[in-house]
Amino acid sequence: MPELESYIDHATLTALIQTARLEDLGPEGIDVTSACFVPAGATGSAAFVSRVPGVIAGLALLPVICEVYGGKVVPQVQRVDGSYAEPGMTLATISGPMRDLLAVERVALNLLTHLSGVATLTSHYVERCAGTKAHIYDTRKTLPGLRGLQKYAVACGGGRTHRIGLYDAVLIKDNHLAGTPLDRLADRLAQAAGQARRLTADLKFIEVEVDTLEQLSQVLKAPIDIVLLDNMPPEMLKQAVAMRDELARKIELEASGGVNLDTVMAIAHTGVNRISVGALTHSAPALDIGLDIA
Fold first, then answer.
1. Catalytic residue among 173, 174, 184, 235
2. What percent of the chain stands above pLDDT 90?
């Protein structure tokens, strides 16, 4: 299973939860409802319970959430991120002062249900690619501030991480290539690739987007790692794979655009190496998880 720290460091996660706490409790840190209705000395416990089947992500956040909320609520995690939950399964419990427990509830559920939804949707895409060489990748289409957590959730669902941001890899898209003649494309890309590798020693990869086979034939001559095949139907993807196999077998091919649960299987069977899916993070429905007070 993926390590949370590989996607977001403790300080960044703590700051994120502190922002969520401030947003919910205000600068005075007060839950007015609980202050009026729940006795100050009351204690209790509650369980996070899955209402529907799905892949879980976000349980690793509970200790940090409880820490940011004062450390009086004690979590006991019973499942691990990346595991499959059946309806009615207890995922974790929390215990402590009731006022603190009720304050923790919404932020914990918001993150847990969203991240589990991302992991579950990702797992459906991964299942449809079984038996092919294609792997499912996320994109930069993430919520501001939540990129690390959303990419962690994708990994929990069996997906893979594309570039983290604009800083760790090169993706030359159609807007970058605008105005470059086809017969100069390979030379221009070679220049850009050399410059990129000088700028960033630990560059993850250099990728170029194309939307025609004519562009692909030129791009395959350049010293790059991946070609993104934008909005190509399966038959054209098969032609692209054949061209790659003939001209530059080491370059990976990534399909993107028009990918959904109905089309991903056909795309995977074309022979591409990678399929990137923005919907994993921008359109995943929340997984239904509740907090049941004991």
1. 173
2. 95
Catalytic member of 51, 141, 160, 197: 141
- Give yes or no: 173 in active site: yes
Given a cut of 90, is residue 50 above it in pLDDT? Answer: yes
Mean pLDDT rounded to a whole number for the chain: 96
Q: Residues 105, 138, 207, 209: which is the catalytic one?
A: 209
Q: Which fold has domain 128-282?
A: TIM Barrel (3.20.20)
Q: Is 106 a catalytic residue?
A: yes
Q: What is the pTM of this model?
A: 0.96
**Helices 98-128, 147-156: inter-axial angle, 10-degree rounding:** 60
Q: Please answer whether residues 146 and 183 qualify as being in contact, where contact means their C-beta atoms are separated by less than 8 angstroms.
A: no
Q: Using one digit for the tens of pLDDT, what is the confidence trace for 104-147?
A: 999 999 999 999 999 999 999 999 999 999 999 999 999 999 99
188 a catalytic residue: no
The amino acid that residue 28 corresponds to is: E
pLDDT at 112: 98
- Domains of the chain, by residue range, sit at 4-119+285-293, 128-282
Predicted confidence band at 179 (pLDDT cuts at 50, 70, 90)? confident
Which of the following is catalytic: 106, 133, 187, 214? Answer: 106
| CATH code 3.90.1170.20 for 4-119+285-293 | yes
